[in-house]
Specification:
heterodimer, A: alpha+beta, tRNA-splicing ligase RtcB, seven-stranded mixed sheet, 19 strands, B: alpha+beta, globular
């Protein structure tokens, strides 16, 4: 595909054919090379064909092939002619990242590390099937889906302050659980408070570099060697079923004719079905917030049991990276309400934005970009510049470059574990195969991804943290 | 023996092709392929069975709903598929209807689960053939 280079890290697919707007790809020559190997660019172009899309279709630096939208795709639609697309959000609705800081240092944790890892592994359910932390009645699941993280805090899983430090306060409105299918409810009823499988993880990290001390201190991250805990998971079977249900409802009601890709099925924002999807998606968003809230609580309990205290284990923030939301953005100099889809992209509101918790309002919202297993993760801060460049969005992770199949042929789980141990990283996983599939070599270079984000100014580098202990689902 | 299914490379997700001398056989093999992304169907004993009855407005939707049934039974009933029996597909007016039995077992401490499938997608989906059927599916993992 022909791309026009605009500047060092900005490439354009000019408006052509059925595209309503151009497509903009934020990448470096080396990352672009891997995007060219699959359908990433085609899928970015397809986003630009959807009705009511504003300004441009965007691909973040970590973008890779998805279905419908690429993973790492951002698109905003106007309320009058625009659409909402389940394929633009993804199956794992509100997959996201929560970061806890601690007042422990690496030296304090060293002697407890193995015991902590075992304790967390025992407490936090993972893997597939029913096996969540609690089993919910259908009445309870509706409450979870309406209240989100608030429900968990009310039940004693966590603290009131956690909610202030969660995107949207841990609850998206309006959420209408009465629109959930019985299938979605039953898939969710046994899975709350569980990590799941695949690329989801729970990680103890140590701060290795602070790039911007003023901002990091505002986030409560003050020293090299400080211990952090990162939680990456989503809405489990409930969210997957909501996506599948609404793809089907839209197919049956609207039809698939004329779509460049059936996974791009969508409904007008003004339609009843579009509204219903939005409100059902919100229930899954809330389920995921509650899920991460409960896991954070289990992590604190594990620290309490092993070290004798969980004091100072404050939440830095919780971000969602698979979601569609109504936000105000400037279009042709005028403020407009848009439906912003972020599929594998993180919101990146800059300093001064009213949606950011007061404690962070001077520095921008925290953004978390987890690396792959055994590699660094990053804390960034949202910027005002991202407003114009990407509807206030940046990357969400490293992005795969190698298929799981190829990974299985290339790596062995046991060897990866040993290799990580020599680097000082302990690993606990449910099986070896998942470890091989998630080997760090199958991902793009996360360092390059955050470098581009920082250079472009869509997310500013604040902290780099390295893993010391990893739990894989 | 003929190849029932084959896994193909896909950057972020999992892709497979399933084959059959009839569309029913290809559907059965697609179910086996999906299950074998998560556990080995050979290691699951056919201890319990579950009836599957679904409809779809076209064959693609029918296939998505059929394979999704494996994920649904796993998430809600800890059910591991071993094999699919008595699968029939009928065209009824505008819709397709599928009936089948899933044979399998419940997850136990001995079950070895090595992967998860989040959802069945339409991405790169193929259902084609007359005498020999080919099905291609990408699942979100």
């Amino acid at each position: 595909m022909k791309l026009k280079q605009i500047s060092e890290y900005i490439w354009e697919i000019p408006k052509q054919g059925d595209m309503n707007v151009p497509a903009i790809v934020y990448s470096s020559p080396s990352l672009l090379e891997s995007m060219r190997k699959d359908l990433t660019l085609e899928q970015t172009k397809n986003m630009a064909c959807l009705p009511g899309i504003q300004r441009a279709a965007y691909a973040m630096p970590d973008a890779h092939q998805g279905y419908g939208f690429p993973i790492g795709g951002v698109a905003a639609f106007d309320m009058e002619n625009g659409v909402i697309s389940p394929g633009g959000v993804g199956y794992d609705i509100n997959c996201g990242v929560r970061l806890l800081r601690t007042e422990f240092f690496e030296k304090d944790i060293k002697k407890h590390k193995k015991a902590l890892l075992d304790e967390m592994f025992a407490r936090v359910p993972k893997g597939v099937g029913v096996g969540g932390s609690i089993h919910l009645s259908s009445k309870e699941i509706k409450q979870v889906c309406t209240k989100g993280a608030q429900w968990a805090v009310e039940k004693g899983f966590g603290r009131e302050e956690d909610l202030e430090r969660t995107e949207e306060g841990g609850c998206l409105k309006p959420a209408s659980p009465e629109n959930l299918s019985p299938r979605a409810m039953s898939r969710g009823s046994g899975q709350l408070g569980s990590l799941g499988s695949g690329n989801h993880f729970l990680e103890i990290q140590k701060v290795v570099t602070i790039y911007d001390r003023e901002t990091s201190e505002a986030f409560g991250i003050h020293s090299e060697g400080q211990i952090l805990v990162m939680i990456h998971c989503g809405s489990r079977g409930l969210g997957h079923q909501v996506a599948s249900d609404y793809i089907r409802l839209m197919e049956n009601e609207i039809g698939t004719r004329g779509l460049p890709d059936r996974q791009l099925i969508n409904a007008p924002l003004k339609s009843k079905l579009g509204r219903k999807y939005f409100e059902s998606m919100n229930t899954a968003v809330n389920f995921a917030f509650a899920n991460r809230q409960m896991i954070a609580h289990l992590v604190r309990e594990a620290f309490q049991t092993i070290t004798g205290t969980s004091e100072g284990m404050e939440q830095v923030y919780d971000v969602c990276h698979n979601v569609a939301k109504f936000e105000n953005h400037k279009i042709n100099g005028r403020e407009a309400k848009l439906c912003v889809h972020r599929k594998g992209a993180t919101r990146s509101f800059g300093p001064g934005h009213s949606e950011i918790p007061e404690a962070y309002r001077d520095v921008g919202q925290p953004v978390f970009i987890p690396g792959s297993m055994g590699t660094s993760s990053y804390v960034l801060a949202g910027t005002q510049k991202s407003e114009q460049l990407s509807f206030s969005s940046t990357a969400h992770g490293a992005g795969r470059v190698m298929s799981r199949r190829q990974a299985l042929r290339s790596f062995r789980g046991e060897e990866i574990k040993r290799e990580l141990e020599t680097k000082g990283v302990d690993l606990r996983a449910k099986g070896w195969r998942c470890v091989a599939e998630e080997a760090s070599q199958v991902y793009k270079d996360v360092d390059e991804v955050v470098k581009i984000s920082d250079s472009l100014g869509i997310g500013k580098l604040v902290v780099k943290a390295d893993p010391i202990a990893v739990i894989k689902g | 023996m003929n190849v029932k299914y084959k896994f193909l490379n896909h950057t972020a997700d999992a892709k497979f092709q399933a084959y059959g001398n009839s569309v029913e056989e290809a559907f059965r093999n697609a179910a086996e392929a999906t299950a074998n992304l998560m556990w080995s169907t050979k290691k699951v004993k056919p201890r319990i069975k579950r009836k599957v009855s679904i409809t779809g407005k076209d064959r693609e939707q029918l296939l998505v709903k059929f394979l999704e049934e494996i994920l649904f039974l796993l998430d809600t009933d800890d059910f591991l598929l071993c094999s699919v029996k008595e699968l029939s597909i009928k065209k009824e007016k505008a819709d397709y209807a599928l009936e089948a039995w899933f044979l399998g077992d419940r997850i136990s401490d001995e079950s070895e689960i090595f992967g998860s499938v989040k959802a069945v997608t339409y991405s790169e989906m193929i259902i084609e053939g007359n005498d020999h059927y080919l099905i291609q599916v990408v699942v979100d993992v």
